[in-house]
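Why do we care about 3D structure at all? Because function follows from shape, and shape follows, mostly, from sequence. That is the central idea of this module. The next example makes it concrete: a single protein chain, its amino acid sequence, and then its structure expressed as tokens.
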Amino acid sequence: MKKFYLAMALLLGLALAAPQAQAGAVIQRILKQKELVVATTGDYPPLTAKTKEGKFIGLDMDLVKALAQSLGVRLKVRQMPFERLVPAAASGEVDLAIGGISVTPRRNAKVYFAGPYFISGQTLLATSKVGEGIKGLDDVNQPGFSIAVAKGTTSEQAARQIMRKAKIVAADTLEQALDMVLNGQVKAMVADYPYCAVAVFRNPEAKLGTLQKPFTFEPLGIALPPSDPQWDNLVTNFLFNMEGGGRLGFLKNRWFKSPAWMRLLPE
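And the structure:
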């Protein structure tokens, strides 16, 4: 009889706990407050940036605007440093975080990731004159080939691991590394694909170009609180529909193929 009561108590405990696990707390909050709260950095164009008027724009911003519209709620964007994005999503401080966040095991241990919605990675940026002689990484991984990188970045790590024979020059910032390419101090630089795409737009007179495909694989995802499986599923399906319907491809072309949006940024 004691075993029977014990079993009933366990079943009752599971029954009481089950609704909490399936309550969809994040979705309920969004619908109740009629507001989708999103964290981003606003400083990583063309994914996320701020205009002269302080408005958030970019591929990432277009995605969350479309998500908010599909839910019939307003969008509230909170600007944060990059290192705060994943913790903010993990704690439920925001409904989601987006802004060039690479999906890694360590981050994924803290949050759920929807996506990837974009495949980024490290690429090479050089003038067209230098680029004419580059057919692949073997042409770069040579003792006489100089490459600028920003100190302490994943770009520096990738360059030192993959291009061991090349001369790696560490700059203090990405902008300093870019200046070294523009001034002819180095033959090329290694950086994230989005940064290189913007550099091409910003310096048309330099006739810059990048590799057709990044040489590292860095999938970008939307970080979500791990407490609401229904919310995770909703955002995952939202991205699936954006991809399948062609809308995501349209947005990628808008932000990565044309420099028209750059006139909106501060000088």
